[in-house]
Amino acid sequence: MTLQSYPLEPTAQERAAVQQAVETYVQNFLTQLPTLPAFVDTPEKGAGLLESPLEETPIQIEEALGLLQREVDVPGINSASGGHLGYIPGGGLYYSGLGDYLAAVTNKYAGIFFSAPGAVRMENMLLRWMASLIGFPADAAGNLTSGGSIASLIALATARDAQKITSRIIPDAVVYTTAHAHHCLDKALRIAGLGECPVRHIPMDAQYRMQAEALESAIKEDKAAGLKPWLLIVSAGTTDVGAIDPLNELAQITREHGLWYHVDAAYGGFFALSPSGKPRLAGIEAADSVVMDPHKGLFIPYGLGAVLIKNRQQTAETHHYLANYMQDALSATEEASPADLSPELSKHFRGLRLWLPLKLHGVAAFRDALEEKLNLAQYAYQQLQQTAGFEAPVAPELSVVIFRYIPEAITDVNEFNQKLIKAVQQDGRVFLSSTLLDNNFMLRLAILSFRTHQETIDLALTILREKAAELEQELKG
Ligand SMILES: *Cc1c(COP(=O)(O)O)cnc(C)c1O
Questions:
Q1: Which residue ranges form the domains of the chain, and what is each CATH number?
Q2: pLDDT tens column, 354-412
Q3: pLDDT digits (tens, 9 = 90+) for 154-211
Q4: What pTM was estimated for this model as a whole?
Q5: Ligand 1 centroid to 300 CA: how many Å?
Q6: Residue 261: partners with Cβ closer than 8 Å, 6 or more residues away
Q7: Burial class (CB in 10 A: 0-12, 13-18, 19+), 464
Q8: Ligand 1 centroid – CA 128 distance (Å)
């Protein structure tokens, strides 16, 4: 008799019961969300999870959800909260969750056109839509990745091969960027074997944007010294302050000098959808490669980035592969297979978590939400400027507002602002993060959650005023 084993296939009744428990949990979470803190610092930090080790015998869904609630969902930043105003906030659209659920249950193999033609068509259609948003040609290569970091790696590996940067010339192959470029690009260079390329940090203007003339002089100087300038990495929305480098001017320089032009629009790219954001991104269409993160600018849950590369052929040359056991797939070439354009083979069918909310909400809802974020940033900036003691040195280009408090009492201003951010984080109703600008400790309001509205900003401003006054009072003793 053969061994038959069905315990991994719940009956219809069992499925319905577990599904009901999960759905109740989700509905409770969403109902309570507006009143839940944006940050919770527990002493155990989820360590209770380890007291329930993996065992031979099963537990009930109620117990599993209890563990999830106490040990996972409560401690740390509540990324689903509209009060998350730190780093670059994510989103977590409900329909994305349903898209993930459908993708996981049907488990289409979305890496290869032959195995899941509809799934690959869906992902490529989403990528062509993104290409059209930023003025890229419809035949640009694209890949839906786990996030901006892997998307950047794909872009820079392609750039390396397109520019024929081989090991012999790496020490002479110069990369240009600013000190505000995202650290994932340094990481990508290192992983792509380019860690020994000289990197020039081009000076920035008072709004923290790359100075085009300084770039041009640096390239000329390096050329005169016999080096090979090959890659320019710029930002369309820096993480620190949301600055957009002068994309058109920089495009001109890369064209003249034959550099690969990479635009990191992981945070800022989808503002191309909004009427006010679109003109600010002019020039992005001149890039050779662009990274943009739907898990930031399209409010999708974490786990979705995108890369677009004009040179489709080169992207495939860097990433394609041939394996004998895959030969059946070779004849199906109508649509490019994700596996030929990325380091991944098997992968999550990520397209569905973006397609479903775009279809069910319609694109206009996303456009409006993005426009609202830009308006909220202007609002927060004006309010901070009008509030005694606060200083907001840079008008926001996108949706990040940087500021600090200058206390009346004579004291270390950096130390005061460190205490201020601590106090706001301990309060927990909103979550803010900080950065250093020219050695000044600055606070940031990063407005990107689809759940952040004017009342959230008003609450953040109230808390900031309260905490600053309390700290000021302490100083005066
Ligand atoms: C978030 C971010 C990245 C990195 O993307 P991940 O999705 O976190 O991997 C790169 N660049 C910028 C400007 C970002 O904001």
A1: 101-361 (3.40.640.10), 363-476 (3.90.1150.10)
A2: 999 999 999 999 999 999 999 999 999 999 999 999 999 999 999 999 999 999 988 99
A3: 999 999 999 999 999 999 999 999 999 999 999 999 999 999 999 999 999 999 999 9
A4: 0.97
A5: 14
A6: 232, 234, 250, 251, 254, 286, 287, 288, 289
A7: buried
A8: 21
